[in-house]
Write a structure and sequence with these properties.
Strand content: 5-15%
Number of strands: 4
Order of helices and strands: HEHEHEHHHE
Number of helices: 6
């Protein structure tokens, strides 16, 4: 693709892997695999596109983190730590490349109607929805719209930002359930 178009304008790092358990019982392999899938992949994606974006002096990097990065639930120490790492990577990299026209932002989805929520029991779904001020789960296209906005020229002055797309969940809300992204 790069050979044909000679540009890379947008990178969306969107990876999500769960292996939930309490830290006391978490196998080291679960820790490593979740961090590799959720954080290392973002590092590798950014590092792969940066030489081209730097040389063209423009680009948009949008990292998909998770509400778990901001409101870490019990049983997700590996996932929450990885997604919090994505938030920190986003903010640090944004400072490194802002002066050369590259923006770096993160989107933190809350509960979204994806396969990750399909396994929730009905009573767990209802309990989760009751903790969301909008009383519903998000739709994938709502997350996509936030990503699309951050990728567009009108968002050129937004960098290092963390955009929650979560139906209004905030720190005062009781703990979020496990599957948020």
């Amino acid at each position: 693709m790069l050979q044909k178009h000679k540009r890379i304008d947008v990178l969306v790092n969107n990876a999500g892997k769960h292996e939930d358990s309490l830290l006391a019982n978490m196998p080291l392999s679960a820790w490593r695999q979740v961090l590799a899938a959720n954080l290392d992949s973002v590092f590798h994606g950014c590092q792969a596109v940066l030489p081209t974006m730097i040389s063209q002096r423009s680009g948009r990097i949008i990292n998909i983190a998770s509400l778990s990065a901001l409101l870490a639930p019990a049983g997700q120490t590996n996932y929450a730590a990885a997604k919090a790492g994505v938030v920190a990577l986003t903010q640090s990299l944004a400072k490194e490349v802002a002066r050369i026209g590259i923006t770096v932002n993160a989107v933190c989805p809350g509960y979204v109607e994806t396969g990750a929520l399909a396994s929730l029991k009905e009573e767990d779904r209802q309990a989760a929805q009751s903790r969301i001020p909008m009383r519903r789960f998000g739709r994938p296209e709502e997350i996509a719209a936030a990503v699309r906005f951050l990728a567009c020229p009108e968002a050129s002055y937004i960098t290092g930002s963390i955009l929650k797309v979560d139906g209004g969940i905030f720190n005062g809300t009781r703990e979020c359930s496990k599957r948020t992204n």
